[in-house]
Amino acid sequence: MSASFRLSSCAMALALSAAVGFAPVPAFAQGKPPAKPAQQPAAPAQQPAAPTGPTVVQVKSNPEQTSWTKVCGKDQAANKEICYTTRDFVSDQDQPVLAVAVYDVKGDANKIVRFLMPLGLLLQPGIRFGVDNAQPTGGRYAICFPNGCFAEAQIKDDFINQMKKGTNLNVSVQNQGGREVTFQIPLADFTKGFDGAPIDPKVLEEQQKKLQDEVAKRQEELRKRLGAGADAAPAAPGGAAPAPATPPKP
Question: Residue 211: what are its φ and ψ, rounded to 5°?
Answer without folding.
Answer: -65, -40
